């Protein structure tokens, strides 16, 4: 079984507690805490510079906090070796960023198949599975296009297919609709929410857009590096 079982159904899958992170003189996080349960979508909202991306990076094991803890299925990530963190990012975590970060030289289908091939699948099998995910995200028709030939919305739905193709337990999405108009954003969020509900994937969504945050089960607001449930203390 891929995902570590904590044996406690009530325990969060991913939990950040009291995170502090400083860059030079800038305090990006000053005591941020957040729980994410299996299958749950949580939106992290807040003004520009409030620490949203830093919190996501700490939770995904991409940035080490100065203090505080990050637990994934009971495992302490803030002290895990880099090798273990890369492994988790390959097997248990999926990532989507604002500009998709698809590989420009590869077709959409090969972009989605790539994580499976890196995980050891053969090209034919990887492309077959990738195709199923592209159908789900409504981009099968674009499979032979390169990222530069697709619309922003199509590229982001391809990036989502790539993030989900390996069956991760958690998808980290940092402003996944940040570069899209409202219609394309809605389409991306509708298909993402529907798909993760079916697959039982948890999503940590960073957004400054209230309409996008409304797709989440729950919202956590960051203000100057400190978390509070949305609407509290603002
Ligand atoms: N690698 C870094 N080096 C130096 N400062 C950084 C770094 N990453 C973030 N910061 C600073 O930390 C603070 C929080 O940044 P962060 O990107 O986490 O905020 P954010 O809420 O995601 O902002 P935005 O919505 O504008 O993307 C900002 O003041 C930012 O300039």
TrEMBL record:
The organism of origin for this protein: Streptomyces griseoviridis
Record-linked InterPro entries: AAA+_ATPase (IPR003593), ABC_transporter-like_ATP-bd (IPR003439), ABC_transpr_LolD-like (IPR015854), MacB-like_ATP-bd (IPR017911), P-loop_NTPase (IPR027417)
Protein known as: Macrolide ABC transporter ATP-binding protein
GO molecular function: ATP binding; ATP hydrolysis activity; transmembrane transporter activity
Keywords of this entry: ATP-binding, Nucleotide-binding, Transport
Gene3D superfamilies: P-loop containing nucleotide triphosphate hydrolases (3.40.50.300)
UniProt-listed CDD domains: ABC_MJ0796_LolCDE_FtsE (cd03255)
Gene Ontology CC entries for this record: plasma membrane
Record flagged with keyword Transmembrane: no
Location of the ABC transporter domain: 14-234
UniProt-listed PANTHER family: ABC TRANSPORTER RELATED, IMPORT ATP-BINDING PROTEIN
């Amino acid at each position: 079984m891929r995902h570590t079982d904590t044996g406690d159904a009530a325990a969060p899958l991913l939990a950040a507690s009291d995170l502090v992170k400083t860059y030079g003189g800038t305090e990006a996080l000053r005591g941020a805490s957040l729980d994410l349960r299996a299958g749950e979508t949580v939106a992290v909202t807040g003004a520009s510079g409030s620490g949203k991306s830093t919190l996501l990076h700490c939770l995904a094991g991409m940035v080490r906090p100065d203090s505080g803890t990050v637990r994934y299925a009971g495992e302490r990530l803030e002290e895990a070796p880099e090798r273990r963190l890369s492994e988790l990012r390959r097997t248990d975590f999926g990532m989507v960023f604002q500009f998709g970060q698809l590989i420009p030289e590869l077709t959409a289908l090969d972009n989605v198949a790539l994580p499976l091939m890196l995980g050891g699948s053969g090209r034919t099998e990887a492309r077959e599975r990738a195709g199923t995910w592209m159908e789900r995200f409504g981009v099968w028709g674009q499979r032979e296009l390169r990222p530069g030939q697709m619309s922003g919305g199509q590229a982001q739905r391809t990036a989502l297919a790539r993030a989900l193709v390996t069956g991760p337990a958690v998808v980290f999405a940092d402003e996944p609709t940040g570069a899209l108009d409202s219609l394309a954003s809605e389409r991306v969020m509708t298909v993402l929410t529907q798909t993760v509900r079916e697959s039982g994937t948890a999503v940590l969504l960073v957004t400054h857009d209230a309409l996008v945050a409304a797709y989440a089960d729950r919202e956590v607001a960051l203000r100057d590096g400190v978390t509070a449930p949305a609407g509290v203390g603002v």
